């Protein structure tokens, strides 16, 4: 049997493979003890270490060296040691630090949730709700940018970008050539379309799905509906470019958006191609499977979205 490391997170013990990060060990346990992650993305190599929302306290480094780590560490970038003891929600210091991180993330982020297309499925909105302060102390003018079209299907609204780099890693790893990146540093940093103005390869739409905020949005869906008034349904098709496994977002009888299927941490399970995402907006393009399972805490379920309610609709579409 291969060697396992024992790690304790918020008093729960789990054994994991060497090389596992604290964040992934926590995800194996699941529940409230899982740190939030705004920049780490399982499918994107090199992601993580940018946003600091996943900070945790290591109160015992390992069995061999039980000294605590001197500072809070990014759980997405720190691998477990045998006998490590970690505190997340059981540490007031972590909770306080996370509140500070949210405040920093919101320094330049506009508080425009009522008009933002991402409202209801924005990770920063959820993070602020769960960990943020009631009011901002920030008195200065926020950074503002003009909206930029990245190709004809994607729009970048840099005002909302939290510089998580997920879209950059996506462009780098999923697409054939690097088409955008982050220019400048600090307050002047911005996602750039410097190399070419258009992202016109087959998988560029995945940048929309990985963006945790409303900075990169689908122009074919923008302002068509609030997400909590839509009905998401799992569907698939035969596709020679991608897995063809998607979520269709219905408004009445119409498919108004197609996205990749996301897991419980909001990460896409399979990247999908632009043909599936943008060009297949008819029910007849798809084989419908079942209503998408929505976390009851999500506002998407606020429209009384329940499996049973969708079944007659699905039956009708299959017929
Ligand atoms: S545009 Fe979105 S995905 Fe890209 S760096 Fe900004 S917040 Fe992250
Ligand atoms: S998720 Fe760990 S630093 Fe962003």
UniProtKB/TrEMBL annotation:
UniProt GO molecular function: 2 iron, 2 sulfur cluster binding; 4 iron, 4 sulfur cluster binding; metal ion binding; oxidoreductase activity
4Fe-4S His(Cys)3-ligated-type domain ranges (all copies): 93-132
UniProt-annotated location(s): Membrane
The protein's matches in PROSITE patterns, at most eight in alphabetical order, are given as: 2FE2S_FER_2 (PS51085), 4FE4S_HC3 (PS51839)
| Cellular component terms (Gene Ontology) | membrane
Arranged from A to Z, the UniProt key words for this protein are: 2Fe-2S, 4Fe-4S, Iron, Iron-sulfur, Membrane, Metal-binding, NAD, Translocase
| Top-level lineage group | Bacteria
**Which cofactors does this gene product need?**
[2Fe-2S] cluster; [4Fe-4S] cluster
Protein family per UniProt: Belongs to the complex I 75 kDa subunit family.
What is the protein name for this chain?
NADH dehydrogenase subunit G
UniProt source species: Solitalea koreensis
